[in-house]
Design a protein that fits this description.
Blueprint: H1 3-24, H2 32-49, H3 53-59, E1 62-87, E2 90-117, H4 120-128, E3 132-133, E4 141-142, E5 160-169, E6 180-184
Parallel strand pairs: 4-5
Antiparallel strand pairs: 1-2, 2-5, 2-6, 3-6
C-alpha cells in the first residue's frame, strides 16, 4: 500500500469516528436531575480520593464538577461532558466542557473533572466570560501530588486548579488544554 492510499484510509477513518462522536454527543447530555445526583457523588469521590480534599474545596471560591467527561480519539480527538458550578456548597449554574485535540492519541475514555477556583477574582472572571477556553481565557494547573500527600500543602502556580480522576478507558491523556467551558440551560 502506498502512502497516498494509507493517508486516504486514515482520513476516511477519522471522518467516520468524528461523525459518530459528533452525532452521539447529545446522548452524553445529562438532565438536571441526573446532575443533581452525580455532582454531589463526584464531590464525595473527590474528597475520598484526594487527601485533604474536603478542606481544599471548603477554602475554594467555587468549583466546576463534571462527573462524566467522554474522550475519544484517533490522531484527532474530541471530548464532551456536562457539569455544574458549585459556590457555597450549592449548584448555581450548569456548564458543558468541549475540547478537540490533534496529535498521537488512540482510544476512548470516561473520566471525572473538577476545576477549582482558588480566588474570588478567578471565579468572577470565569463567570463573566461567554465561553471560557483553557490557554486563551486562563490557565489551569493540573494537580499532581504524591500518594498520601495532603493537597493543601501544595502551592499551585495558577488560581485555577484542575483535577482529573476516576479514569475508565484506554486513553492516558491528562490535560484540559484547549477545552472550552460554556454555560448551558438545564
Amino acid at each position: 500500500m502506498d502512502k497516498k492510499s494509507l493517508w486516504l484510509r486514515i482520513t476516511i477513518t477519522l471522518s467516520i469516528i468524528s461523525a459518530i462522536f459528533i452525532t452521539t454527543t447529545s446522548s452524553f447530555a445529562e438532565s438536571r436531575t441526573e446532575l443533581a445526583i452525580e455532582v454531589p457523588a463526584t464531590i464525595q469521590l473527590f474528597k475520598r480520593e484526594v487527601k485533604g480534599g474536603a478542606r481544599f474545596l471548603a477554602r475554594a471560591a467555587g468549583y466546576l464538577v463534571f462527573p462524566n467527561v467522554y474522550k475519544a480519539g484517533f490522531i484527532f480527538g474530541g471530548e464532551y461532558g456536562e457539569g455544574a458550578l458549585v459556590v457555597g456548597g450549592r449548584i448555581v449554574a450548569y456548564y458543558n466542557l468541549v475540547g478537540a485535540s490533534f496529535g498521537w492519541q488512540l482510544g476512548i475514555q470516561r473520566r471525572s473533572v473538577v476545576v477549582v477556583f482558588l480566588t474570588g477574582k478567578s471565579l468572577r472572571d470565569f463567570r463573566r466570560s461567554h465561553g471560557w477556553q483553557v490557554g486563551i481565557d486562563g490557565s489551569i494547573a493540573i494537580a499532581k501530588w504524591g500518594v498520601g500527600e495532603d493537597i493543601n500543602n501544595i502551592d499551585f502556580p495558577e488560581p485555577v486548579v484542575g483535577f482529573i480522576f476516576d479514569n475508565q478507558g484506554l486513553m492516558g491523556n491528562l490535560t484540559l488544554e484547549g477545552a472550552k467551558f460554556t454555560r448551558i440551560r438545564k
